[in-house]
Amino acid sequence: MMSYGQLFLAVAPVIALIGLGLPLRRMNWISEAGEETLLNLIVRVLTPCLIFESVVRRASVSGAGDVLLPPLMGFLLTSFSLGVGWYVARALGLTIGHGLRTFALAVGLTNYGYLPLPLMDTLFGPESRAWLFMHNAGVEAAIWTTGVLIVTGESPRAAWRKLLNAPLLALAVALVVKLTGAGVYIPEVVWTFVHALAVCAVPLGLLMTGASFAPHLNDPKQLANPRIILTAWLVRLAVLPWVFLLAARYLPVTTELKQVLVVQAAMPAAVISVIVARIYGGRPLIAVQIILGTTALAVFTIPAWIKFGLAFAGLAP
User: Kindly report the CA angle at 277 between 149 and 103, in degrees rounded to 5?
Assistant: First the structure.
């Protein structure tokens, strides 16, 4: 079993890439216009290539059960976490229109994208990516249904169209190719092309995560909200990890899905909560406070939770 030091060293390059994005954006090496362009490139081209390659060439998917259970778990655990965030926000004294909805969203959403991806690679090998992507399909569904319902208080039916995006389309196509065995007919030159794009997705995604934080650091005083940040630390980094770890230990799921749940348990708040808060009239500043606060502390708690989680879920050698 990896020691805390070894796990910390596995986390350090990931956090360093996020940290590098901050000065690149502040020095305008990544401009505001360039930020939007690069994000579109990542979401619409690079990530779909990474998903397609990971599922078709590396995944050990053998049947419909392997395909359906990960997104179901992602949806249920994320929706439950959002519900916990709602009741904690109420206990904190937040009200609708004054941060309750955004607090619930930001605390309830664990980082499910570019931060856990390289950790899955390091800990369990590239074949583990496919299980993370399938789990994330359920997380996306929870964000645009349960999450939108929490932020707006309205029916989330209109938000379902946001599920029709390039990464999920790539996942659907990849699963069809994988389950039908059609991948053997794809020429190697095509795989070389797909791989060249896929390897860019994670490092560029991490850089852009850091770059997205930069505009919010112009006035550091507005980020200092001890009441919000301390509660977010408690909920996101101390209480909610148990939801994922208990599922990993006691539910009859595959070893690969248990690995995903252990890594997800250790993650800080997700950047996407800022986007959802902006789109649906929430309080983006509260989301930024929670994201930055939990990410800063998670540098030290991620290795501890993963080390403990692997042993608790019965995955440690």
Answer: 80
What is the DSSP annotation of 145-177?
IIIHHHHHSS--GGGGGGG-SHHHHHHHHHHHH
Helices 272-279 and 100-108, packing angle to 10 deg = 150
Residue 163: CA atoms inside 13 Å, Cβ hemisphere, count? 19
Biggest CA pair distance of the chain = 59
**In 10 A of CB 255, how many CB atoms?**
14
How much is the pTM? 0.86
Residue 84: burial class (beta carbons within 10 Å; 0-12, 13-18, 19+): middle
SS3 assignment for 183-239: HHHCCHHHHHHHHHHHHHHHHHHHHHHHHHHHHHHCCHHHHCCHHHHHHHHHHHHHH
How confident is the model over 37-68, as pLDDT tens digits? 888 898 889 989 988 988 888 766 666 667 78
Q: Phi, psi (5° rounding) for residue 8?
A: -60, -40
Among the listed residues 123, 114, 128, 127, the one whose alpha carbon sits nearest the alpha carbon of residue 10: 123
Q: What is the pLDDT of residues 65-106, one digit of tens each?
A: 677 888 899 999 999 999 999 999 999 888 877 888 899 999
Residue with tokens 């208080």: 153
Domains of the chain: 4-312 (1.20.1530)
Q: How many Å apart are CA 172 and CA 229, to the nearest integer? A: 38
18 CB-near residues (< 8 Å, 6+ apart) = 115, 206, 207, 209, 210, 213, 295
